[in-house]
Amino acid sequence: MSDVDRKSDPETPAAESGGRIGAESVTPADTKAGANTSTTAAGQAMAPDDDADDQVFKALANGTRRRMLDVLKESPRTTGDLCAHFPDLDRTTVLQHLRVLERAELVIGRKVGRERHLTLAPVPIKRIHDRWIGEYARAAVSLLDDLTRG
After folding, report:
1. pLDDT of the residue at 137
2. What is the model's pLDDT at position 91?
3. Which of 89, 52, 92, 94 is nearest to 69 (CA)?
4. Given this structure, which CATH class describes domain 46-149?
5. What is the chain's pLDDT, residue by residue, as a tens digit (150 residues)?
6. What predicted TM-score, i.e. pTM, was given to this entire model?
7. Residue 108, phi then psi, degrees to nearest 5
8. How far apart are CA 2 and CA 27, in angstroms?
9. How is the chain classified by DSSP, letter by letter?
10. How far does Cα 33 stand from its chain's mean position?
């Protein structure tokens, strides 16, 4: 496997995670403010909701970020508490993942004194469910119903 393949392969404990086993890397594109474009590959303009949905899908595409959301689903945490749940990752990596989650509006951070309190924001996931999963589930049920009626 070449160095380029190893850096782009999420299963390889490589490059930006400091080479630690089990650590998933956060690419610069994940953390850039303007990482998502507002046009499609064909050059067509995307609706603002599409851009927001893309950020949510991108955030959910990473296993570490999904585990972070699972931890926050249990209860709100401070940044330090969240870092403690991921001993195999250094604090900087956790904060990079957290930044992606905040840009997707999946996590809300609130400063209280010297601490940041993090809370899960379920609305973007609900929006994805309503737009995509719910519609496809209804279509699948309809197809099954058509098959049983024969």
Report:
1. 84
2. 96
3. 94
4. mainly alpha
5. 444 443 433 333 333 344 343 444 565 555 444 444 444 444 555 555 788 889 999 999 999 999 999 999 999 999 999 999 999 999 999 999 999 999 999 999 999 999 999 999 989 989 988 888 888 888 888 888 888 887
6. 0.64
7. -115, 125
8. 18
9. --HHHHHH-TTS--GGGTT-TTPPP--HHHH-TT-S-SB-TTSPBPPHHHHHHHHHHHHHTSHHHHHHHHHHHHS-EEHHHHHHT-TTS-HHHHHHHHHHHHHTTSEEEEEETTEEEEEE--HHHHHHIIIIIHHHHHHHHHHHHHHHH-
10. 15
Interatomic CA distance for residues 99 and 30, integer angstroms: 9
Phi, psi for 109 (deg, rounded to 5): -105, 135
Give me 112's structure tokens: 């209280």
- For the chain, the residue count is 150
Number of neighbouring beta carbons within 10 Å of residue 109: 14
